[in-house]
Design brief:
By secondary structure, the protein is of the alpha/beta class. The protein has two domains: 132 residues, Nucleotidyltransferase, domain 5; 202 residues, 2-Layer Sandwich (Nucleotidyltransferase, domain 5). The chain is built from twelve helices and 15 strands. The strands form four sheets. The chain has a five-stranded mixed sheet, with helices on both faces. Strands 7-8-10-9 form a four-stranded antiparallel sheet.
Length: 384
């Protein structure tokens, strides 16, 4: 019999999963995210999302709640046909944005959740209602949800209290979470003071001007954008000034020459995978520079998080980390050098590739798993 239902609501898909008490996935199904962008644009210039195209006969602020109720009902009906049962004792939501419960409703808002679907919830808060709260329902931001699952693993296998562990999202975006901490920890939007304004980028957190947010350099999107900004400056006087500035701040090689000699110049644009592939074996100086900047920013963020929350271990997951474990090792080495001799971080902070498989799905489920089942779940959650 299934014991737990997990719902991972992201920017492109909604993943539903039923798991038994031992942590085995016994039925799964995926639907389109209500926030997935289509190829169209609205009359006001905003990108159209899937939720703009469905349930158009009901008030806009009710659509997300209705859509998720419909997809959950469809999922449970499919589960009944496939496995003969769909009962569960706990429901966990992992949500792609700021998450809170208010007046019996679970609400969220974030960079990928257009505010036109939000309702005035009172008490000065605006949010998109996605579910009705119940005794067996818990919701958290996706970073905190994944951190909760990882915390279960560290508690069961290493005896470290979950509250002393943290989880970094290092994928298309850059985020952070702590088990049991339900405020949104937007570490990706901490400004990076060492980056000159020429490398600032547009960010979802701010309208009207570019920012030096950590996500603009540490994430997959940031790695790609930073490389392309530099490639576009090839040979310009602006690049010469930037090169001199970065050399003075970081002591790194001549950025002007790195751009001029980069293999990535062959194409008009590059992507994060190309940058990281070339940086891995030091095949391209510019790629190494961009990857090293990403590692520096992540390491600074890790030390900051450890100091603020009193962390012993930080696991790093998602696509950029999983595809480039060498990059995680670089970050860990930088952290070691920053905290060497620290009299505050005791024991020394450890940074590593997350031991979790399926952090998004297990993150949603972990929100409702009792501590008595941690050991069984830790074994199932471990990455192969």
């Amino acid at each position: 019999m299934p014991d737990f239902l997990g719902i991972d609501l992201g920017a492109t898909k909604v993943a539903y999963v039923l798991a038994n008490g031992d942590g085995d996935f016994i039925f799964e199904k995926t639907y389109t995210s209500p926030y997935k962008k289509t190829s169209n644009t609205l009359s006001d210039g905003e990108p159209e999302v899937f939720l703009d195209t469905i349930l158009t006969d009901i008030p806009i602020e009710e659509r997300a709640l209705r859509y998720l109720a419909q997809t959950e009902a469809d999922f449970l009906n499919a589960a009944r046909k496939e496995i003969g049962d769909n009962n569960f004792e706990g429901r966990g939501y992992s949500l792609c944005g700021k998450t809170w419960t208010q007046d019996g409703r679970i609400a969220m808002i974030g960079g990928n959740t257009p505010s036109r679907f939000a309702a005035d919830l009172g008490k000065g808060k605006i949010g998109i209602v996605v579910a009705n709260a119940a005794d067996n329902t818990v919701a958290a931001n996706d970073g905190n949800a994944a951190a909760t699952a990882q915390g279960i693993y560290y508690k069961a296998t290493r005896g470290v209290e979950p509250r002393e562990t943290g989880y970094f999202i290092l994928g298309t975006g850059f985020g952070f979470g702590v088990p049991g901490y339900f405020a949104l920890t937007e570490i990706g939007h901490i400004p990076v003071g060492l980056v000159p304004e020429l490398l600032w980028q547009e960010c979802d957190c701010t309208d009207g001007h570019k920012t030096a947010c950590a996500e603009n350099y540490a994430s997959g999107r940031g790695i790609e954008n930073t490389a392309n900004i530099l490639l576009c400056l090839d040979g310009s006087s602006h690049l010469r000034k930037l090169s001199d500035c970065m050399a003075a701040v970081t002591g790194q090689a001549d950025l002007f020459d790195l751009v001029a000699t980069s293999k990535m110049k062959a194409n008009r644009r590059t992507d994060a995978k190309t940058v990281m592939d070339l940086a891995k074996n030091s095949e391209d100086g510019l790629a190494v520079f961009v990857a090293n900047l990403a590692a520096d920013v992540t390491a600074y963020a890790a030390v900051t998080a450890a100091q603020l929350f009193g962390l012993q271990i930080i696991g790093i997951g998602e696509t950029v980390a999983q595809s480039n474990p060498w990059h995680v090792d670089t970050i860990a080495g930088k952290v070691d050098s920053y905290v060497d001799g620290s009299t505050i971080l005791r024991p020394p902070l450890k940074v590593e590739l997350t031991p979790l498989s399926e952090p998004a799905k297990y993150g949603a489920l972990a929100l409702v798993v009792p501590e008595s089942r941690y050991e069984a779940w830790a074994e199932k959650m471990k990455a192969g």
